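[Meeting: bench + compute handoff]

Bench side (C.D.) handed over the final construct sequence. Compute side (W.E.) agreed to return the predicted structure before the next meeting so the bench team could plan truncations. Sequence as handed over:
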Amino acid sequence: MAALGSALVEAIPAGNQMSGEPENLVLQLLRDMRAEMSSMRGDISGIEANMATKGQIAELRAELKSDMHSLRADVASDLMTLEKKLSEQITGLRRSVIEYHSSMIGHGVLITELEERVRRLEQHLKLPPHDAH
């Protein structure tokens, strides 16, 4: 239909050759519309050339999905490694606390024994108890 319209417009003379005015205002408007439509066709062709096809979008989607799965696997691996390191550090800390606690209990036993000996010495020497000083 567009080809028929452009053929009709081209078949009609351009107007009065002497004055340079169009013979008919409608013809001039049709010619202007044809020029604008030609420009728009060029613009649409440029847009179509830059647009992604459904196939390209599907490929991109598949690639992104694959990257997401890979990223999830990397994060899971990193979390497992971190958990293992933290577990080892906590185990080491527990050992240190147990060793410290054991040594402090040992010192506490020694101090208690010394206090008992001092008390017996005070009693043997008939000294007033330490609390009375």
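W.E. noted at the follow-up: Residues 54-124 form the longest helix (71 residues). C.D. will use this when planning the next construct.
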